[in-house]
Amino acid sequence: MKLAANLFAALGVLLAAETACAQSSYPNRPVKILVGFTPGTAPDLAARILADRFSEVWGTPFVVEDVPGAGSNVATDRVAKAAADGTTLLMGGNPSLVINPSLYEKLPFDPIKDFAPISQVFIAANVLAVPIESPVKSVAELVAFAKAQPGKLSYAHAGVGTSQHLGAELFKYMAHLDIAAVPYRGSTALMPDLLAGRINMSFANIVNVLPLAREGKLRALAITSRKRSALAPDLPTMAESGFPGFEAVPWFGLLAPAGTPQEILDKLHTETVKTLAMPEVRRKFDELGLEPIGNTPAEFAAVIRKENARMGEGDQGRRHQARQLNPRNLQRLAGCGRKFAGFRHRPRKAAIFTSPFSPLANKTRESEALHPEAATSFPAQAPGLPGPARASTSCSRNIVIASPASISPPRTAESGCIHSRVD
User: What is the value of pTM for the model shown?
Assistant: First the structure.
């Protein structure tokens, strides 16, 4: 017995020594940074800037892997379940860490318990844009244009629970508009259809809109931040365009799985802050329209906790309504802004949005109920089938997204759905 006890004790000391050695030599093998959106989006570009710097400093490959789907929930869940050894990181933001916990009935991860925050990396803004061929020249003209043809226009967003999604719903709510939503896997994924005019408008990330607007391929109408962007000082805010208090901005930061050794977290945090302070990196962020942050792990964790608590404020009735807006049960998406409006629940098969010229048109896909945006398919060209893309609002098999005017009146008092830095 004594010999066995001594052997176990020796084994424990050996394992502890090996673990300490692995931590001190981190990173000693390739590291992945997962991003929940398509390549070329703001979190993807920010992750690549950090990955390049980390690889240079430590001589170990840091690889960015884009895993789009479900408003970045897929990538977030994958990191939550990854080994806590620093080899799998997340460029995560408020869609999956703050907003979706209120929109989905149940998520396979806990945004607070399952992650070790490293540092908040940036805050961005979205831009309301329309195709260059659109007759609309301002937000006021867009409102008049939409009211003249209720239910006939569509907007694209980067996924359920993103700031683009909720920003558009806030716009609809405040202007009393009936515009159909068409989900994609990221801002870059929706651009071909917006450029081609198959989609009438989008609140898309400033990183992807402004270059196209400068080339005369898109028309930017307003920015969703509280202040004008230094990158486009002539572009008015939504508040200046007749929507006081309007703000819908995304933020993203670097996180590791919960349980990651503190020494690894400290290394990553120190190098992240150093990288964000570099003049060339700040210049890149400025050119992209991103505001670098670089706070401490404790400060980043406090942001996540505070904004989750803010999303959960109010009575249980409103909280229940918010959770009913998940993709599986989505039937009516009401005004999502300073309040969650009520909606009619019609239990039917979950379906997907498709273009009328997509091979998926009018087909129900039970397997894609959890991630409807993953099924969206809009080909670059549709020979012989002209006309804008649209989402069905009549077929009983299709999900219907409607304006607050077409649904049951709100059953709850004022509550905060979109707040500063939450969306």
Answer: 0.71
